[in-house]
Amino acid sequence: MAYPTDRKYTKEHEWIKVVGQEAVVGITDHAQESLGDIVFVELPKVGADLTAGSTFGTVESVKAVSDLYTPVSGTVTETNGDLATSPEKVNKDPHGSWMLKMKLKNPGELGDLLSAEAYEQFVAEEGGH
Amino acid sequence: MHLSSVETTPVVRKTALNAVHRQMGAKMVDFNGWDMPVEYPASIGCGIINEHMAVRTGVGIFDVSHMGDIRLAGPQALSAVQHISMNDAAKLAVGQAQYSALLYPQGTFVDDVIVHRLGEDEYLLVINAGTREKDFNWVRDNTRQFDCAVENLSDDFTQIAIQGPKGVNTLQKLTDADLGAVKFYWVTRGTVCGLKNILIARTGYTAEDGFEIYVPADETTSARVWNEILSAGKEFGIVPCGLGSRNTLRLEGKLPLYGHEISDTINVWEAGLDRFCKMEKPEFVGRTALEKAKDEGVKRTLVGLEMVERGIARDGYKVLDESGREIGYVTSGSPAPFLKKNIALAYVPPQFAAIGTAVKIEIRGQGVGAQVVPTPFYKRPKKAA
């Protein structure tokens, strides 16, 4: 699939869309498809300080628990309360269903992330499709 | 997140339908050395939750050919079965089946099994995939003293389960056997998809009505039968179902899974399978130990749990009392798609087994509230007369 070019991606299958000094984070279509039906999303508290590469929560499918990794460092400003009652929204619209919003600590870290094209290639190679 | 690879090693075993599952786009998993479908794609209306709901409301089909089949036949076949099986096979009429277990001398489980009486002196034991060889060796070694042939027929059959309230409607379109005359846990033979003398059993592992058929194991026949069933069930919303939904379905029905609720370190009383264990039989392997264990009383018992606070209890998670002290562990835990709750089975000391008892499940270092509930969690509705 063609991944939206308005954001960057990680090898852990998260996406991050920057709006000024703030960023919105979610998981990719490849992630939701691999996980299957998502039944539970656990997100950090507003105000939590996150460091790039560390885990910020979990997403659970019927069969498995998967960690969520923060693409960049920053402070959580908002989490998507919808996902507590309707986690399946992540399956239906992975690129529209955001998980958290954060104030960036070090925007320079964005340079380490993948473009849409690079992520598509990464997914194609990783899956061996 | 880290997404696990779905590649399986080349040494793994495959059923005759393996190519069909892959061609349908199923996500595959290594299950006890077998390359099996865990779920089929959302693009064809599948996924664990949809597959689960199809079985509860319509019909779904499963490839269960990985399970094993042991045939005991001969003048002393009944005596042989009675010696190794804890239930009472003497109660079986020809064409009748029962749930049972093979036990070690300590009264713990070799495996659980469905015993079918196929003829006057002929019995078929259907056993778990992961214990095929162990069970066959066990049965053969423990029945040498009986005039009875023991055969491993595991590779001879493709076994397909057709499960759900519309299972009977689906299969009836493909067979001349009168399925309405076959009661639950009885078997018959008939022509299925043009194949003569096919064993048709009204059995299953989903806590729904349904059938299991045993067809020849060549790939062409197996694929043809699979596809004909899918066509016949189309009007009832049939979907192919994998091991993922197989697990959530059996969990809702409190059906045990070997290696979880039952194992070689758990005895019949702890597992709560008393009603399948006929102590009035004078002799069977494990009876002596069970008699002693009954006198001593159980130190742990299997209970059903429902999450009360937000969270999902999973296999192996610790069960804590309200003060946070570890008291037991979860044997199987998962979201329940039909009940729309998060449920689990767990071993706890008897003093925590009363319905309504509050416990906690340790989830990523936190104690999350749950309570003991009656089981089975789900019971299929009784059909109107």
Tell me what the structure shows.
Chain A has 129 residues and is an alpha+beta fold. Chain A is 21% helix and 34% strand. Chain A has one domain (8-107): Beta Barrel (OB fold (Dihydrolipoamide Acetyltransferase, E2P)), CATH 2.40.50. Chain A has 4 helices and 9 strands; from the N terminus they run βββαβββββααβα. In chain A, strand 2 (14-19) and strand 3 (22-27) form a beta hairpin. Chain A is globular, with a radius of gyration of 14 Å. The mean pLDDT of chain A is 94. Chain B is an alpha+beta fold. Chain B folds into 2 domains: 10-297, Gyrase A, domain 2; 299-373, Aminomethyltransferase beta-barrel domains (Elongation Factor Tu (Ef-tu), domain 3), CATH 2.40.30.110. In chain B, helix 2 (48-57) packs across helix 7. Chain B is built from 9 helices and 19 strands. The interface between A and B is medium-sized, with 28 and 22 residues.
Summarize the structure.
The complex is a heterodimer of chains A (129) and B (385). By secondary structure, chain A is an alpha+beta fold.
Largest sheet of chain B: 6 strands, mixed
Mean pLDDT of chain B comes to 96
- Overall, the morphology of chain A is globular
Distance between the termini of chain B: 52 Å
Mean pLDDT of chain A: 94
Number of domains of chain A: 1
Q: Might you state the CATH topology name of the largest domain in chain B?
A: Gyrase A, domain 2
Q: Briefly, what CATH class of the largest domain in chain B?
A: Alpha Beta
Within CATH, the superfamily of the largest domain in chain B carries the name Probable tRNA modification gtpase trme, domain 1
Key descriptive features of the protein:
heterodimer, A: 129 residues, alpha+beta, OB fold (Dihydrolipoamide Acetyltransferase, E2P), six-stranded antiparallel sheet, three-stranded antiparallel sheet, 21% helix, globular, B: 385 residues, Gyrase A, domain 2, Elongation Factor Tu (Ef-tu), domain 3, 2 domains, six-stranded mixed sheet, six-stranded antiparallel barrel, 9 helices, 19 strands
